[in-house]
Amino acid sequence: MTLELPVDLLFGLNLDLNLDLTRVMTANAIVLPVVLPLLAAFLMQPLAQVSRFLARLLGPLVLTLGAWIILNTWLEVGPAPFSVAIGGFAAPLGIVFYADQLALLFALAVQVFTLLFWPGLGAGAKSEVAADRQRAPRRDALALLLASAATGLALSGDLFNIFVFYELAAVASFGLVCADGSGRAWIATLRYLFISAFGSVLALVGIAILYLQTGTLNLAQLAQVAPETLQGPIGLAAFALLLIGFGVKAELFPLNAWVPEVYATAPARVSALLAGLVSKLAILVIVRLLILVFQQPEASQLLLVLGVLGVLTGEFSAWRAQDFPRLLAFSSIGQLGLVAIAFSIDGTTGILAGTAVALHHLIVKSALFGLANRWSGGLDALTGAAKGAPRAAGLFVLFALSLIGVPPLWGFWIKLLIMVGLVQGGSPLDLLALGAILLATAVEAHYLFRVALRLYQPPVPDRALRLAPPARWDTGVAYLLGACLVVISVAITPTTEALRVLAQQTGDVLLYIDTVFPQPLAYKE
Question: By the 8 A CB rule, do 121 and 473 touch?
Answer without folding.
Answer: yes
